[in-house]
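note to self: dont lose this again. the chain is below, predicted strucutre after it. 174 aa total, dont forget to put it in the shared folder this time
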Amino acid sequence: MKNILENIFYYVLGLILIGIFIWLLLDILIMPFVVRKWDERIIPSVIGLNVDSASKILKEHEFIPIVDTIIPSSVYPKGIVMEQNPQPNYKVKKGRKVFLVVSGGIEYVEVPDVIGKRRMDAEDILKSYGFDVEVEYSQVKGIESDIVLDVSPSIKSKVPKGSKIKIIVSKEVL
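---
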């Protein structure tokens, strides 16, 4: 019985050692050829370049540029690459797709008509459009307090999102 168990042990041990040898052979010698390990390149940074220049550079390095997203930006001018994926200086295989996030420039928004609305409602509406609201009070006889009398810039004008909008609000004089 002891001889049979000893034979099984050596058989299993032999299988494990052969498995480890095959795994190392595949991992070190064969797999690098299969996955073309030597076709790796470092991705250049194209952030801050216009889309055409960025695409040209990526193609020269044998990558495939893809404009993935266009996002409004007040920091980057229209058509400038803001982000890239994979990130710059990563090692990847040639022929890989590089996804670019490009600036759509400043987003303009039309000033909504809030004249005649209560101050709080007008502020909520303007903030929902992405505006920064400044309130100025004007004493007016015969008009209820906290009603929007005027807006600057004027309603229906197109201004950059995030601009400051001034509302003139009534303050009743007794």
